[in-house]
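Support request from a user on the community tier.

User writes: "When I paste my structure tokens into the form, the page sometimes reloads and wipes my input. The last time it worked, I copied everything first. Here is what I submitted, just in case something in the input itself triggers the reload:"
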């Protein structure tokens, strides 16, 4: 039985022990038995697995905290404590390390969009549009386009025209998935973008925009 099969067949008690580093199966101490696989498996175990993950969203281990909070920031599992932790992750990242801080801010922005809750101050998010981390800037754009829906066309249009290739790609994805037809022409203009991610995102967006609604 390989590691994936062991994880899938494990009980919640076994998964928790492995999460805590106890009795990890022989030969599985490497990345093949990753925390990501464990958090995914725990999330599939129903209320007992989810209840354990709720105990981890303020864990000292920041990797565990990140994974647990990300898994719980879903419409079916979110609660007030998860929302509070998302807001705190954005406003007060748990590390001074720039990469870790950016990662938690992105987690917060993405998670709040997934659950459709927008408590952050607009100005605090807007300042990130010019952040040196292109992924953080793109996440800020996506958040703003959802939080201020009447302005979504203008916000995403600016994203499509950005020098930030991640922002251009994310904007294409938003236009396609949300079928924002007024921006179709702008997306078409990115089909031959020099950046492969942007060009692929533009093609997918065009396919979605052309797909007939049921």
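"...and here is what came back when it finally went through:"
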């Amino acid at each position: 039985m390989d590691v994936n099969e062991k994880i899938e067949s494990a009980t919640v008690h076994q998964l928790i022990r492995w999460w805590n580093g106890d009795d990890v199966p022989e030969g599985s101490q490497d990345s093949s038995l990753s925390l990501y696989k464990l958090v995914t498996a725990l999330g599939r175990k129903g209320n007992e697995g989810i209840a354990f993950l709720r105990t981890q969203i303020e864990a000292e281990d920041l990797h565990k905290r990140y994974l647990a909070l990300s898994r719980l920031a879903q419409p079916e599992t979110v609660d007030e404590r998860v929302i509070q932790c998302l807001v705190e992750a954005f406003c007060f990242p748990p590390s001074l390390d720039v990469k870790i801080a950016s990662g938690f801010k992105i987690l917060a922005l993405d998670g709040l969009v997934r659950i459709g809750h927008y408590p952050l101050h607009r100005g605090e998010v807007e300042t990130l549009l010019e952040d040196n981390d292109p992924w953080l800037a793109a996440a800020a754009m996506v958040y703003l386009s959802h939080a201020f829906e009447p302005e979504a066309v203008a916000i995403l249009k600016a994203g499509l025209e950005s020098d930030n290739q991640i922002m251009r790609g994310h904007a294409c994805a938003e236009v396609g998935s949300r079928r924002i037809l007024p921006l179709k022409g702008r997306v078409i203009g990115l089909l031959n973008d020099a950046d492969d991610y942007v060009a692929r995102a533009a093609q997918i967006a065009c396919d979605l925009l052309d797909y007939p609604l049921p």
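Agent notes: The reload is a front-end session timeout and is unrelated to the input. DSSP finds 13 helices and no strands in the chain. The CA atoms of residues 7 and 41 lie 7 Å apart. Escalated to web team.
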